[in-house]
């Protein structure tokens, strides 16, 4: 993947994250869009603890989070209550 391109992922929030382990390629910026399809309280926000990112997720409104290029590893994300969990494996280019 060209490091000047932006990777794109869409994650649907409905009784969990779907997909809950989408992958990215290391060294390339990414745009992750969350679409919350439920009214449950736990899914009202998404948190990327290691990146210091916390975003509200209004129901049926896409919320896009731009991530800078990441090294290989795993980026965890959770709901605001830390009950729903997902992770983004970042694989070497």
Feature tags:
48% strand, globular, Immunoglobulin-like, mainly beta, 93 residues, 5-stranded mixed β-sheet, 4-stranded mixed β-sheet
Q: Topology, pairings included?
A:
Elements: E1 7-13, E2 17-18, E3 24-25, E4 30-36, E5 45-48, E6 53-56, E7 63-67, E8 73-79, E9 85-91
Parallel strand pairs: 1-4, 3-9
Antiparallel strand pairs: 1-2, 4-7, 5-6, 5-8, 8-9
So what's the CATH class? Mainly Beta
Helix count? Answer: 0
Task: Catalogue the unreliable spans.
Answer: none
> Helical content, roughly?
under 10%
- Strand order, main sheet: write it out: 3-9-8-5-6
CATH superfamily: Cupredoxins -  blue copper proteins
User: How many E strands?
Assistant: 9
Global Rg: 13 Å
Would you give an account of this structure?
The structure is a single chain. The protein is an all-beta fold and 93 residues long. It has one domain: Immunoglobulin-like. It is 0% helix and 48% strand. The strands form two sheets. A five-stranded mixed sheet has the order 3-9-8-5-6, with no helix packed on it. A four-stranded mixed sheet has the order 2-1-4-7, with no helix packed on it.
């Amino acid at each position: 993947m060209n490091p000047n391109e932006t990777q794109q992922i869409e994650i649907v929030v409905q009784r969990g994250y779907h997909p809950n382990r989408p992958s990215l390629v290391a060294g390339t910026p990414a745009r992750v869009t969350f679409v919350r399809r439920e009214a449950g309280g736990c899914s009202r926000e998404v948190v990327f603890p290691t990146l210091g990112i916390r975003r509200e997720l209004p129901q049926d409104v896409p919320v896009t989070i731009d991530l800078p290029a990441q090294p290989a590893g795993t980026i965890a994300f959770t709901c605001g209550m830390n009950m729903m969990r997902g992770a983004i494996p970042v694989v070497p280019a």
